[in-house]
């Protein structure tokens, strides 16, 4: 199994002379700026010697404004940039896949900015570092900067003695923190990790195959939901851990199906010098430990399930995307939207939290959702939609999609338009979606 260890330091022994007035030398030269001090930044994760794969450095003045960025390319090429003397705060972001993140530009960043994942990307080996330093006039100052790994690494899952009629097996771990800020503080939003297992034909085990899985730590004590799918039913078995999964540690999960009494065993195993240790969770379970069981449901996009509108279905993986039954308005910021999404009850078999529909999903909802007119007014319940402007995402950025019905007598004649340069409005409709595994 491949474990990402190539990014062991947060930013490559980077030699950069930091600009406090601009992000590149050309702009500074055009402004007639005279270099009066220099800064050499070397960031390294404790106990690690190998260089990282990618890194970016933000420089902030004492007003909290970003006054310069050392880009990944500049870090790689050891570019030099002019600097002014004074006290600066430095934040470094490193990763084995920096392209996974939608990192902010200079004029849109502060130390509380959320490090967001790009659409379709998963968490990587994320490493952060912070420091404050004063640049003396006319001198070159070298800063040796310590960094911290902010993620856990799930690199081993085995499930043994699983009944032969099981055709799919998966593990869901949560709650985990969903977002982290540049300053290393988490937001209140949570999510869960859904991991598909594969059956080893030779050994008869179900295991995690492919790359290791990185995640932000758990918020509190996590639960591990082991879901078994048979041809005509689905069963769940849940183990509640009595302590959190903390950052900079490997996680091993061992599951054994036993025809007998259940036992629970947990314990740390400090084995890897690059990480602080390994949390090994061993769970033995029997048929009587089942926490939920349902017969197989047959879902179809455009229909309803448990009064939820079905947006899409993947029959191969037995997953589906459902639309929230009701709407909200008055969502005027990212934080309000995240708080609202976190407070909505989830349907059975949910694998993650509520999120905005993508452009394609929103288009399907507004095209296929039923429009009901009652006493001359629109009414919205479960699969019903009303004319208006809906929040969605396009290329991982906030967008809106507007539904218009020019002729009230022809409800199927719908005009749908996308706005990719959207902001927030009191009247925009918040109708999130969620994925389930059935």
What is the compact description of this entry?
This protein is mostly beta strands.
How would you describe what is shown here?
The protein is flat and about 75 Å long. It is mainly β and 438 residues long. It has helices at 25-30, 72-77, 334-343, 359-368; strands at residues 38-45, 54-60, 66-70, 86-95, 101-102, 116-117, 127-135, 140-149, 152-160, 168-177, 190-199, 206-207, 213-215, 218-229, 233-240, 249-257, 263-269, 277-285, 290-295, 304-305, 308-314, 319-323, 372-374, 377-379, 388-394, 397-404, 415-419, 433-437. The strands form six sheets. Strands 9, 10, 11, 12, 13, 14, 15, 16, 17, 18 and 19 form an eleven-stranded mixed beta sheet that branches. A six-stranded mixed beta sheet has the order 1-8-7-4-2-3. A four-stranded antiparallel beta sheet has the order 20-21-22-28, with helices on one face. It contains four helices and 28 strands.
What attributes does this structure have?
438 residues, 4 helices, single chain, 7% helix, 6-stranded mixed beta sheet
Mean pLDDT across residues:
79
Which structural class matches the secondary elements? mainly beta
**Which segments are poorly predicted (pLDDT under 50) over 5 or more consecutive residues?**
1-35, 45-51, 260-273
Share in β-strands: 35-45%
The biggest beta sheet, please? 11 strands, mixed
CA radius of gyration is 25 Å
The strand count comes to 28
Q: What would you call the quaternary organization?
A: single chain
Percent of residues in helices: under 10%
Q: Quick one: overall form? A: flat
Termini distance? Answer: 28 Å
Number of helical elements? 4
């Amino acid at each position: 199994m491949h474990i990402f260890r190539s990014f062991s330091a947060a930013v490559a022994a980077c030699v950069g002379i930091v600009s406090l007035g601009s992000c590149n030398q050309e702009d500074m030269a055009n402004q007639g700026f005279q270099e009066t001090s220099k800064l050499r930044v070397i960031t390294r994760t404790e106990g690690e010697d190998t260089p990282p794969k990618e890194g970016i450095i933000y420089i902030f003045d004492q007003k909290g404004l970003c006054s310069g960025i050392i880009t990944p390319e500049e870090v790689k090429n050891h570019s030099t940039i002019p600097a002014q003397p004074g006290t600066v705060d430095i934040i470094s972001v490193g990763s084995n896949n920096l392209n996974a993140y939608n990192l902010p530009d200079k004029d849109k960043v502060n130390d509380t900015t959320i490090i967001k994942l790009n659409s379709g990307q998963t968490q990587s080996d994320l490493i952060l570092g912070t420091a404050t330093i004063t640049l003396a006039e006319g001198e070159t100052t070298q800063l040796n900067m310590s960094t911290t790994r902010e993620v856990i690494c799930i690199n081993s899952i085995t499930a043994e003695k699983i009944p032969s009629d099981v055709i799919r097996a998966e593990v869901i771990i949560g709650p985990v923190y969903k977002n982290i800020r540049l300053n290393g503080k988490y937001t209140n939003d949570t999510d869960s990790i859904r991991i598909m297992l594969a059956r080893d034909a030779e050994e008869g085990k179900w295991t995690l195959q492919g790359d290791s899985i990185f995640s932000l730590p758990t918020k509190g004590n996590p639960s591990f939901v082991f879901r078994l799918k048979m041809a005509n039913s689905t069963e769940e078995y849940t183990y509640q851990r009595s302590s959190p999964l903390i950052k900079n540690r490997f996680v091993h999960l061992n599951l054994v199906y036993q025809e007998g009494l259940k036992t629970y065993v947990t314990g740390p195993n400090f084995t890897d010098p690059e990480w602080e240790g390994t949390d090994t969770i061993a769970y033995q379970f029997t048929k009587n430990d089942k926490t939920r069981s349902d017969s197989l449901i047959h879902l179809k996009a455009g229909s309803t399930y448990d009064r939820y509108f079905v947006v899409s279905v993947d029959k191969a993986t037995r997953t589906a995307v459902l639309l929230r039954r009701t709407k909200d308005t008055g969502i005027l910021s990212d934080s309000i939207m995240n708080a609202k999404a976190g407070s909505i009850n989830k349907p059975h078999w949910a694998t993650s939290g509520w999120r905005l529909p993508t452009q394609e999903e929103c288009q399907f909802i507004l095209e296929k959702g039923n429009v009901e007119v009652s006493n001359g007014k629109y009414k919205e319940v479960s699969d019903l939609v009303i004319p208006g402007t809906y929040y969605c995402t396009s290329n991982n950025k906030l967008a809106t999609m507007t539904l218009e019905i020019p002729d009230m007598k022809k409800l199927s004649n719908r005009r749908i338009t996308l706005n990719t340069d959207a902001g927030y409005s009191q009247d925009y409709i918040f109708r999130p979606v969620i994925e389930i595994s059935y």
